[in-house]
Amino acid sequence: LTVLNAGRRYLKAEDLSGKVFVTSGLGGMSGAQAKAAVIAGCVGIIAEVDEAALLKRHKQGWLMEISNNLDHCIARLRDARKNKIALSLGYHGNVVDLWERLVHELDTTGELLVDLGSDQTSCHNSFSGGYYPVQLGFEEAKQLLSTNPGKFRTLVQESLKRQVAAINRLADKGMFFWDYGNAFLLEAQRAGADVEKKGANKTEFRYPSYVQHIMG
């Protein structure tokens, strides 16, 4: 319902075939995102750093494909988008790399390849393993978390700023992004990312929350 309503409200579209939804997280709460994309009829690209979560959702049948190669992900995205095929593709990697690759495609081809975007990493727990920084691989990041949590925190905040910078660039060209109630925008703001709503008070963000703006 969130994906469908986001399409209705922000894309003015009842039919989401050929539309692309990019997000992250295939764990407990977030695992249904892959299934939701296919039910809604769109192309869903979901990034997840933990291979176990990807394999679990694939085994369940909620996730159609898995790839750790961004070139392959972009090629599959383009094909499914062009042919209006419903697809859920799990990218085994960091969502920041995915967002930055989409910016690269925009800069080099002029194409905006994503229509809807969100995030379901556990940012309410971002410094204790709910969000993994793009600068390190999954296992390396887990090790740093246990040996140097202060450094881990710094890398997470740098990663959040990079993620928001990429999202902002795509949103400026017409992608619609929303917060999934996971404290992503709050933690990004605390990290110094540009997420404040211009001309509003500091508690308002430039992107809507799914609770008030989409489900409400």
UniProtKB/TrEMBL annotation:
Domain of life: Eukaryota
GO annotation, biological process: L-histidine catabolic process
Cited SUPFAM superfamilies: Urocanase
UniProt xrefs under Pfam families: Urocanase
GO molecular function annotations of the record: urocanate hydratase activity
Gene3D superfamilies: Urocanase like domains (3.40.50.10730)
Domain Urocanase Rossmann-like: residue ranges: 2-214
Protein name (Swiss-Prot/TrEMBL): HUTU hydratase
Protein's gene: Uroc1
